[in-house]
Amino acid sequence: MNQLSRRKKLLLAAAVYVYKRKREYWVHPINRLRPKLGDHVKLDIKYRQFPDRFKKETRLTPPQFDELLLMTEQQLQTKAPRRDCVHPRVRLYVTLK
């Protein structure tokens, strides 16, 4: 009985900790724009306004990402003239994410 009581106390303490944890955002401002604007605009916003979040997702800083994009842009370019293609920048981002 004592063991069960201790376990309940630990679970309660963990639940209180998670509940009281302070969040910077409930929903990040970038994610609020996704339904309206799409992922490609979200990428540009992350890149410009939230470089720390961009680095967390791609493991590259924005200048490193630009350098890698310059090196791989020709290989990522799609040659389909009849339809809109995914931009190489977005393709690289999705690959790294």
Which keywords apply here?
73% helix, single chain, mainly alpha, 97 residues
Tell me what you see in this structure:
This protein has one domain (2-96). It is built from 6 helices and no strands. The protein is elongated and about 70 Å long. It has helices at residues 2-20, 29-37, 39-49, 51-58, 62-76, 88-96. By secondary structure, the protein is an all-alpha fold.
DSSP E strands, number = 0
What is the mean predicted local confidence, pLDDT? 76
Strand content: under 5%
Major pleated sheet: none
Order of helices and strands: HHHHHH
Number of helices: 6
Enumerate the spans where pLDDT stays under 50 for 5 or more consecutive residues.
none
Ends distance: 48 Å
Instruction: Using the alpha-carbon principal axes, give the shape.
Output: elongated
Rg estimate, integer Å: 21 Å
Please tell me the total number of domains: 1
Question: Into which percent range does the helicity of residues fall?
Answer: over 70%
